[in-house]
Amino acid sequence: GRSAALRARMEERLLSARFRYINEQLYTCSSQEAAQLFQNDPEAFEIYHRGFTQQVGRWPENPVDRIVRYLRQRPASLVVADFGCGDCKVASSVRNKVHSFDLVPLSPLVTVCDMAKVPLAAESVDIAVFCLALMGTNLQEILEEANRVLKQGGTLMVAEVASRFADIRAFMNAMTQLGFKSISK
Ligand code: SAH
């Protein structure tokens, strides 16, 4: 009884610690290294995703819901690319054509690839989404890839934890240099 409960609690804490460790790794390594990490250790992805879902579940609002609400207000004819799509909440919630990219296929809707190099033609999407997925130290390469696949005048949507930005103004300036104009923050 009591020792089983204690054991379960301890195991839960170890899993959360592993989630935080993997999460930190994803934000401090390149996207190519992240791909290697999940390839070499499929269990890492499982633990990561469980922890991610748990964490987001405790937030007052899941940003992916806000992105879905925004997409529903815009024409369903717009083509969307979801970078680091996770369980494909975007693709499964809107009528638009959604290209869903992730390192691991949590759903059959996923195209497995590194988001720094997605199998899409240049200027083929209207809206690019990074929902809690702007990870990887090669940020510039990843955002250039989003820029490549976006049509002129397309929309880039980024949802990220505020504490992840060392300097939000520097980030906004860098985005301008990459060719993006801020519409709302
Ligand atoms: N956008 C989803 C999932 C966010 S979790 C949501 O909001 O629910 C972050 C996701 O990004 C994970 O599924 C992780 O596997 C993916 N990811 C991290 N680095 C990646 C990379 N280099 N290429 C593709 N996907 C990546």
TrEMBL record:
EC number: 2.1.1.-
Superkingdom of the source species: Eukaryota
Principal location: nucleus
Biological processes per GO annotation: cellular response to glucose starvation; methylation; rDNA heterochromatin formation; regulation of transcription by glucose; rRNA processing
CDD domains xref list: AdoMet_MTases (cd02440)
Gene Ontology molecular function: methyltransferase activity
GO cellular component assignments: chromatin silencing complex; nucleolus; rDNA heterochromatin
Alphabetized Pfam families for the sequence: Methyltransf_8
Keyword terms, alphabetized: Chromatin regulator, Methyltransferase, Nucleus, Repressor, rRNA processing, S-adenosyl-L-methionine, Transcription, Transcription regulation, Transferase
Subcellular location(s) of the protein: Nucleus, Nucleolus
Subunit relationships: Component of the eNoSC complex, composed of SIRT1, SUV39H1 and RRP8.
Function: Probable methyltransferase required to silence rDNA. Essential component of the eNoSC (energy-dependent nucleolar silencing) complex, a complex that mediates silencing of rDNA in response to intracellular energy status and acts by recruiting histone-modifying enzymes. The eNoSC complex is able to sense the energy status of cell: upon glucose starvation, elevation of NAD(+)/NADP(+) ratio activates SIRT1, leading to histone H3 deacetylation followed by dimethylation of H3 at 'Lys-9' (H3K9me2) by SUV39H1 and the formation of silent chromatin in the rDNA locus. In the complex, RRP8 binds to H3K9me2 and probably acts as a methyltransferase.
Family: Belongs to the methyltransferase superfamily. RRP8 family.
Protein name: Ribosomal RNA-processing protein 8
Organism of this sequence: Chauna torquata (Southern screamer)
Highest classification ranks of the organism: Eukaryota, Metazoa, Chordata, Craniata, Vertebrata
